[in-house]
Design a protein that fits this description.
3 helices; 2 strands
Length: about 60
């Protein structure tokens, strides 16, 4: 099964590219993809929460919220 999910890890450079990232995300959504963005610090500090959000995106009806 194809989930058409893109997971983006954003470092400091993305703070200067918000408009570019928003335009890119819109193009990807128009092409049928979903985009999840996580800050690098978020992944380092709370990986279980990041993984839970990814799991919820992939299996929305089987996870507890």
């Amino acid at each position: 099964m194809a989930h058409r999910l893109i997971i983006e890890l954003d470092g400091p450079v993305h703070m200067r590219r918000k408009e570019y990232d928003a335009d890119r995300d819109a193009c990807l959504r128009d092409a049928g993809y979903r985009v999840l963005r996580f800050l690098n610090d978020e992944v380092s500090a709370d990986l279980p929460s990041v993984l839970r959000r990814i799991e919820e995106a992939v299996f929305p009806h089987t996870t507890n919220k």
